[in-house]
Amino acid sequence: MPTEANVAVPATKRAAKPVMFYRHRLPVRIMHWINVLSFFLMLMSGLTIFNAHPNLYWGKDSNSVPLLSIHAVEGANGELHGYTTIGGHSFDTNGVLGASHEVGDAQLSDRAFPSWATIPGRQWLSMARNWHLAFAWIFVLNGIAYIAYAIFSGHLRRDMIPTAQELRNIGASIKDHLLLKHPSGEAVKRYNVLQNLAYLLVIFGLLPLIVVAGLAMSPRLDALFNGGWVDVLGGRQSARTLHFLAALGLIGFVFVHVFEVIITGLWNNMRSMITGQYRLPPQTHDKTEKHS
Amino acid sequence: MMKRRTREKQLQMQLESQPPRRRFLRLSLAALGATVLSACDRLTSNSTFVGALESAQNLSRAAQKLVTGRAAMAQEFTPADIRASFRSNGTIMPNSEQYDALLKNNFADWKLEVSGLVEKPMQFSLADLRKLPSRTQITRHDCVEGWSAIGKWKGVPLHHILALVKPLPDTQYVVFRCADPMDEDDDDDDSGQQPKKEVKDSTYYESVDLDDAYHPQTILAYDLNDAALPVKNGAPLRVRIERQLGYKHAKYLMKIELVKDFDHIRGGKGGYWEDEGYEWYAGI
Q: What would be the CATH architecture of the domain defined by B73-184+199-275?
């Protein structure tokens, strides 16, 4: 049923003229980019720390058979070869995982993650810890500030928590995503339900998990409540494994996030996260009107 | 005709423009990645920047002490958690004639010297230490590399020793001096002719503040898993600093020194690995 506003601006005219709207407020934009920077610095310095003992276990100590091991084996010719072993199955990952070339080196080095993925580039545990444990403060404080802002500004309630109706339409949203069909017109103003669930899972699932599992590796914090709380995560080595898995989950999120940013209009999305201004794509009528 | 050619040209241009744009995007991403990486490595060799990164450890130490409390106890485990062999790291056999001689005699001639800012410097034989009150604890050892091992330790709580030697009011830190030489000579020629060079402060050392020194779980351990401490784990005596990482738990103890500061010792950072760039505060 057409409302007065709809009559005043016919759809055809609206489509012809780009409509800008203010999508991201300044605090969100600032915190987003601080998060991007500190996430990548922590990820890459974390890989250097992992390289110092490239095995993951389940339990309190590291005396069991590793669940994951990234290692090099020296062949008969003395040449190293990289393998990744997961749950007893070995995969040839030479050149990337287990053994890889450091910049300018002709020979392979014995290192779990390659130097192009680590900070610092060469295997230097103490320096990686300096990076990791300093940016952890920035990452966590920024994250806490974001959650506080999201709650108190209404961002969480207004933009992030899906409505019951949106949740019921999740099937259609999944189909649209798989077909790379994206909402147009007014529907763009609101995050879609899958986007909402992904953000909520990251903000209230993966990020708290990675922080708590990280803190559980600290011997001093393990003494909190006179010890024992780390067993909730399965023990310190389990916590180390969960920390790693949560990082993998976040990498997965970043891949999907960046993919969606690119295919739904890289420059438009980038502008909206830098200046806040987002250009509404013109309404197309061949799509299901799931928000009406 | 003209119109059609223009249209074709446009289409062709569109087709051609796609790959270069993608290539541009890919190249710029790769260039961005390489720039960020080399920028990080450049920052890593900037001492002001690294100093700023390192200062975060003061924040971590303050926050951890505040949150856990000074007296917080490290987790203790049950006998079921103990494994047969306790992993060894770093020195597994000190390369020194002095240590060889002590080991030969089963440490009967070994004495722990406690000195520095104390009213009453003392020496303790292994038998003396075994006569003092002891504490037994099953704890987890966490290496900075990432592995963990659980073992049962028995030894004298350090606070008993401190009570005997009576620290002077200026005391701020307790320094542990060890038998294992760390600064090996560079000659790899294996001639075996050169006498061992005795370089000042060339052996492993560590230090803790008084919070950790007086902590009930800080013990001078002489037993591991109900047997005398093996050589690979630090015989005859090692310190347990249960709320910090493995490198603080100095092995092959020879001397305990109470000091006001450790600026004058070796690299001045308070420990062998600290001098190599690791954090003095290893609670994280």
A: Alpha-Beta Complex (3.90)
